[in-house]
Amino acid sequence: MTAHQGVASYCLFSNMLLLLFPPAVPFRGPPDPQRAHLPSLVTHTPQSLSRSRFSAQAQLDFSTHCTASCYHKEFRPEVLTEQLAFETLYSDGSRTLTTIDLEVRDEDEVNQSTAVQPPTTRGNQIFATRRQRRKRQIYGADGRFNIRGDHFLLDYPFSTAVRISTGCTGVLVSQRHVLTAAHCVHDGKDYVKGARKLRVGFLVPPPANSSRPGKPLVRWVRVRRTRVPKGWIQGPQDASMDFDYALLELRWPHRRPFMRLSVAPSSKNLAGRRIHFSGFDSDRPGELVYRFCPVEDESNDLIYQHCDARPGASGSGVYGRVWDRVLERWERKVIGVFSGHQWLEIDGENRDFNVAVRFTPLKFAQICYWVHGNHVDCSQD
């Protein structure tokens, strides 16, 4: 083993120890206990739609462009109710549209439900000139870790990562539900060809007499129905990445631990200001890849970061350690979905980021309704 390999192995081992056995007290105390009231979605009777043509091609290397107008959005209740309506695609190819009303106590709740206000200063960011503009997914030295061995692959939190048959990643968020990116199943105009017989892949250990010892196998499960927000279906270019998420319901429940959802707090209220996610990056076939990094910036709907990622990681559940008010401790919870790459141009500054969709209270309420079928069982924790 070379000296470089030895240092790399030591760093990997040290980081894995920190991941599995984090400090007992990541902060001096819990964050600000104040929280906004969670709005409720009141659904109308689903309307039948024509069957999907399944004409779109899956776009795993998803990239968008954003200027000040999409970074600093103004939210209107009538627009939000349209964007939070959703389509349901069934396994037989039929689909429905469900429109919604927002049940809020006052107008302030809609404003509070946009989660955070963009910061006025962005600190020490990585800047690029217009001539240097290009898609970036690896920033500097590659900081990703391959997760190997049954002890890691099949244990929480890595066991919550699953494969999507269109080439993306997903995360288990209930006994029957998988969260992924909307662009993995729909291009904004139509469902992708692979969504016709969508499946979710679970890593399982190889049998004792396997010809590929140590190499996990994949057990595929069919999807019963898929839900996508209308904010995405109206066109990804109109809504940027803000609504790039979808929920898949399996035909039968799995028996694995899943990761709970949470409204995304401001990065200052994340332990270490860090996010984490594991996915099936296309440049490392057959491997589950884990990474973590600090949040660089955040808007009302997106988390900007430089976590290294490649196509295939789209749809990974982005999680952080957030304060659980019921358990009174720090817990890993899914606060967003990894979407892809965005070129950000604001005030003459050109920067590029890898981007995750953040769960505002409104998005959380929508996804929670999809999971439970009602809003009574939904709370911010």
Features:
381 residues; alpha+beta; disordered N terminus
Folded structure, characterized:
- This protein is α+β, with helices and mostly antiparallel strands.
- 15% of the residues lie in helices and 32% in strands.
- It has eight helices and 19 strands.
- The strands form three sheets. Strands 3, 7, 14, 15, 16, 17, 18 and 19 form an eight-stranded mixed β-sheet that branches. The protein has a six-stranded antiparallel barrel with strand order 8-9-10-13-12-11. It has a two-stranded antiparallel ribbon with strand order 1-6.
- The chain is globular, with a radius of gyration of 20 Å.
Shape: globular
Q: Tell me the major beta sheet.
A: 8 strands, mixed
Structural class: alpha+beta
Count of helical regions: 8
Q: If you average the pLDDT, what whole number results? A: 82
Task: Find the count of extended strands (DSSP E, 2+ residues).
Answer: 19
Helical content (DSSP H or I, runs of 4+)? 10-25%
Please compute the radius of gyration using only Cα atoms. Answer: 20 Å
Percent strand equals 25-35%
**Residue windows where pLDDT falls under 50 for at least 5 positions:** 1-10, 23-28, 112-135
Could you give the distance between the termini?
A: 47 Å
Order of helices and strands: HEEEHHEEEHEHEEEEEHHEEEEEEEH
